[in-house]
Amino acid sequence: MNERKLTYGASGVDYSRIDPLKLMAQAAARDTAPNLRAAGYAEIEESRGESAYVIDMGDFLLAAITECLGTKALVADAMRALSGRSHYDSIAQDTIAMAVNDLVTVGARPLAVHAYWAAGGSSWFDDEERMADLVRGWKAACNASGVSWGGGETPSLSGVVCEGAMDLAASCVGVVRPKERLTLGERLRAGDAIVILASGGIHANGITLARKLAERLPQGYATRIGDGRMYGEALLDPTVLYPKVTEALFAAGVEIRYMSNITGHGWRKLMRHPAALTYRVTRLPPVPPVLEFLAREAGLDAREAYGSLNMGAGFAVFVPQAQAALAVETSEREGVRAFHAGRVEAGDKRVIIEPLGVTFEGESLAVRL
Amino acid sequence: MNERKLTYGASGVDYSRIDPLKLMAQAAARDTAPNLRAAGYAEIEESRGESAYVIDMGDFLLAAITECLGTKALVADAMRALSGRSHYDSIAQDTIAMAVNDLVTVGARPLAVHAYWAAGGSSWFDDEERMADLVRGWKAACNASGVSWGGGETPSLSGVVCEGAMDLAASCVGVVRPKERLTLGERLRAGDAIVILASGGIHANGITLARKLAERLPQGYATRIGDGRMYGEALLDPTVLYPKVTEALFAAGVEIRYMSNITGHGWRKLMRHPAALTYRVTRLPPVPPVLEFLAREAGLDAREAYGSLNMGAGFAVFVPQAQAALAVETSEREGVRAFHAGRVEAGDKRVIIEPLGVTFEGESLAVRL
Questions:
Q1: B21 or B260: whose pLDDT is higher?
Q2: Which letter does DSSP use for residue B359 in this model?
Q3: Which of A31, A149, B198, B330 sits at a 20 to 30 Å CA gap from A45?
């Protein structure tokens, strides 16, 4: 074992302990579907296990989701003294991104967001600059995602949320209209192109690992990385908001066959689709300096880095080969770099990253518990 | 000052510190409404500040909400050693109730719920009985509310959520269909009847006060209250789920003119409606023994008790006088005791509780920040 290596097991998130709850919850949740039928509606059953829950409303489909930020706000809190800024404008964007980027994967246009900001005691609300940054960033992210901010909760939960911390989450509803926009993947097939949309940094996954590394670095978050910036500041580059891109792709007539938001599990998320298909990547997007630094300093090899971090790939869109160039061009017109990175092939479920000689087998991704 | 008195100021929830954030957030949220218009929809502007956000979808209205449980799970955690039960089936019902009981106040029928269960570290998931109770209770509460459990998040947030604790919240979407069911209150008028639906105990508001009292009692949560039960166990009686009642009222043809979910601010919530109207209560519902005990032991006078706790009134429905009896009867057929408790009158905005000689003036309720 490399002494310098930091892994997720060592850094405190033990998915094997959470999975039994997820399994139980998903089985129980499935049993409640008849309530929707009793109300005159129906769920799209295949949406269970996908990123958003989809309901057939008759003329159109409704999609709903709740997502949390995770622990990234702790990085912002730690950077306050070093940068003199609260960074909660970025934190707000990250939180919104967690919800809307997942919601759009089913083909939905997000419409409205609710905020969930639970503070660990009333003292959190004394910092006016941080509050103003949070509100300003939330509003800006709503505008950039084309959603209305419908409301939310701002409880003070001493004894539940850690003193000085805030638990941030967002829920979102959207519409799949026309219904043919639904992208649960029944159209994905061998021969399709993999188009990768660039990430803006670490986004909001891999943060526990990134925080553990900061604890070990002599200069912590103030450590300068490849591009001369502070490690902590680079970590706080906000998650890219992809709804404007997905809307532009639909508007441009791109036939999106499937989408995957690259979050936890890194590039293993490329094989999120349930079918047995091989995803062959032949071209890599550039790696953001902060992820290059993190992977190197944490002692991660390519398999570990690409299997847990986004490594420059924030979102994947699967389209017919003939439309790959149009998809790339459309995304870039919206300000998000895109790459025709590979193709879908017949074969066992796996992701082959050719330039790195890395293969992830299907069983290494168990997001469909 | 009575030495025995516990108040909200003393018990740690200082709303005056949270309100500036709410104000800022509500102003910023309002500015994002044009995004909905750009997508071809429109918000019901009057729903901002109400309990749920309402969107005009053309044929019908969509309502959405996110609500948190608060700190009631801490009571369950403390009772584990005393009762030998996890009580998370009740906690699950409380969390669902926070969302669906608010959602129905706008006239919506709830359709789907998402769970947000954020644990303070992976160790939370080691307690299999607690997990099973949470899942079972959540499913049962979904069935009792007529909603489909669409999905959710179960993150492990060490450093954000307190070790050993869980931050529970729920988001919910529903439909107002036909649109005439919308009950934002434009129909409420002097002469209408106040129908109170019974609570099942403390519900999920006033918990910080209840926990402070437990700290002060020599036997804590094990203290026997009036009916011989343990204080902690009685606190954990779950929140009543009102959606089945509101659906039954609509089905029975009751013209509901306004609804108010009695949560924080106790009976001051009876004047939640924006208009200047007087609410005269002439008949009190029975006080659950746990609230009688809490009010007495915390040294609260009637004004303080009714101004912060539900004191037996879980939900209020405002209907034409001629329909009050039908409303009461319909609710009781659904298993929820109901009381024709008073009437709406022309006059200054205030709640007059005649049997107690208590009046709450309008300015004592500032939920519309």
A1: B260
A2: E
A3: A149
| Contact (Cβ atoms closer than 8 angstroms) between residue B101 and residue B315 | yes
Q: Is the pLDDT of residue A2 over 90?
A: no
Kindly state whether residues B198 and B314 are assigned to the same domain. yes
**Nearest of B136, B138, B84 to residue B116 by alpha carbon:** B138
A141 within domain boundaries: yes
Q: Are B175 and B206 part of one and the same domain?
A: no
Q: Establish if A51 belongs to a structural domain.
A: yes
A211 and A351 in a single domain? The answer is yes
What part of A 21-40 touches B (C-beta under 8 Å)? 21-22, 24-25, 28-29, 31-33, 35-36, 38-39
> Which pLDDT score is estimated for A16?
75
ipTM of the complex: 0.94
Q: Between A207-216 and A72-83, two packed helices, what is the crossing angle to 10 degrees?
A: 40
Query: What's the rounded Cα separation, in Å, for the pair A70 and A57?
Result: 32
Do residues B157 and B44 both lie within one domain?
A: yes
Query: Of B67, B159, B173, which has the smallest distance from its Cβ to A173's Cβ?
Result: B173
Residue B171 is nearest to which of A66, A73, A148, comparing CB atoms? A66
pLDDT at A369 over 50: no
Bridge pairing between strands B350-353 and B166-176: unpaired
Which of B149, B163, B208 would you mutate first to test chain A, the one with the most A CBs within 10 A?
Answer: B149
Contact check, Cβ <8 Å, A17/B125: yes
DSSP letter at A184?
Answer: S
Nearest to A24 among B39, B135, B156 (CB): B135
Q: Flag whether residue A149 sits within 8 Å of chain B, measured between CB atoms.
A: yes
Supply the range of the domain harboring residue A349.
193-364
Could you tell me the pTM of the whole model?
0.95
B-facing residues of A in 298-357 (CB < 8 A) are: none
Establish if A251 touches chain B: CB-CB under 8 angstroms.
Answer: no
Mean pLDDT of B83-99: 98
Each residue's pLDDT tens digit, A194-226: 999 999 999 999 999 999 999 999 999 999 998
Do B356 and B216 belong to one domain? yes
Indicate if B218 and B166 belong to the same structural domain: no
- B270 in a structural domain: yes
Query: Which of A:53-112 have CB within 8 Å of B?
Result: 53, 55, 57-59, 62, 64-68, 70-71, 73-74, 109, 111-112
The residue of chain A nearest to residue B58, with distances taken between CA atoms, is: A59
pLDDT at residue A1 above 80?
A: no
